[in-house]
Amino acid sequence: MQDSTIDRFYAVIPAGGVGSRLWPLSRADAPKFLHDLTGSGQTLLKDTWDRLAPLSGDQRIMVVTGRAHRAAVEGQLPGLADANVVLESEPRDSTAAIGLAAAILERREPGVIIGSFAADHVISGDALFRGAVEQAVAAADAGYIATIGITPTEPAVGFGYIECGADLAVPGAERVESVASFVEKPDLATARRYLDDGRHLWNAGMFIARADVLLAELARTKPALHAGLVELAAAWDDPATRGPAVDRIWPTLEKIAIDYSVAEPAAAAGRLAVVRGHFQWDDVGDFASLAKLNTAGRSGELAILGENARVLSDASSGIVVSRAKRVISLIGVQDIVVVDTPDALLVTTSEHAQRVKAVVDALRLGGSSDVL
């Protein structure tokens, strides 16, 4: 696959975040990206690696993750080069993670084009995905910060949206558009309007840019954060200086998502481009989306996850995730969510699946960190 890699392209996989809406399946010590949620037989992280390696080559993939997850990540990705493991001492959100990767890679290879792709999303349609990345790389080479928006298939209220603007003339790309604005998660009526107007795409959090362009935008909007990341990158490749620099600088970095620090300001300045992605995408953001994913969207069916799950069902639908040995019996319940683990049990409905995060917040405030 090396002969078909994209020139100058380097893939970055931020592997952070617990996925708290998938509690108690996803935990701090076993986050969402380390689970097989699709029945593929491998984790979401490994699926992401397999999708990106043909585009960049396996020696040109960098993973940014927490120190606690290093062993698990390296166990999942035996082809990951040691120099391409970037460890966070504590979570500082996506700007710090992606910005540090950009600063390190720009020092190693000036002019490099990086693409950031979440470790815990589900994508199918590899040829369509590759085509979208190639067009985004062309836009990045032309000086834009690019994102890939997903063509919506339903009026989803759980995603942010990208509003497309005018077409851009980008050499080597069939169709690239400017980004008029980012829109937060809408209500249902607004989401239906977005679906109908053809100008709004789901925001999948994919960003492709020349590393120096991304860093320049960050320097404009968040100069202190930029300075910290550049200083860290300067110390990164020397083991003698990395540790002290991380201990001194990392805790001082502002926690902010890259959508707010880079993407939205770049859109306002006319420097953000979007490529329409026609591949299937799901961020598996809660148990409702996990149920839909595992039943191929068919209502009235029951998805069952768990290698040794023991589930009896009569006229029931939804999802059961079993990590315990108990027999779970469902009779006449619709759109139910049952997640059974040895130390925690969750029961809710698909309608209320987004509210699981509030349970996690309450457990944390109550001091029940042992189940988080």
Overview of the structural elements:
- The chain is built from 11 helices and 17 strands.
- With 372 residues, the chain is of the alpha/beta class.
- A 5-stranded mixed barrel has the order 6-9-7-8-10, surrounded by 4 helices.
- A hairpin with a 7-residue loop joins strand 7 and strand 8 (176-183).
- The two termini are 40 Å apart.
Largest sheet: 5 strands, mixed, barrel
Name the average pLDDT: 93
Share in helix: 25-40%
Straight-line N-to-C gap: 40 Å
- H/E element string? EHEHEHEEHEEEHEHHHHEEHEEEEEEH
* Strand order across the largest sheet: 6-9-7-8-10
How many β-strand stretches? 17
Beta-strand content: 25-35%
Overall geometry comes to globular
State Rg.
21 Å
How many helical stretches? Answer: 11
In short:
By secondary structure, the protein is α/β, with parallel strands linked by helices. Helix content is 34%, strand content 26%.
Topology of this structure?
Layout: E1 9-15, H1 44-56, E2 61-66, H2 70-76, E3 85-88, H3 93-108, E4 113-116, E5 122-124, H4 126-141, E6 145-150, E7 161-168, E8 176-183, H5 188-197, E9 200-210, H6 211-221, H7 223-236, H8 239-249, H9 258-268, E10 272-277, E11 280-282, H10 287-294, E12 302-305, E13 310-314, E14 318-322, E15 327-331, E16 336-340, E17 345-349, H11 356-365
Parallel strand pairs: 1-2, 1-4, 2-3, 6-10, 12-14, 13-15, 14-16
Antiparallel strand pairs: 4-9, 5-11, 6-9, 7-8, 7-9, 8-10, 16-17
Helix pairs in contact: 3-6, 3-7, 3-9, 6-7, 6-9, 7-8
Spell out the key features of this protein.
alpha/beta
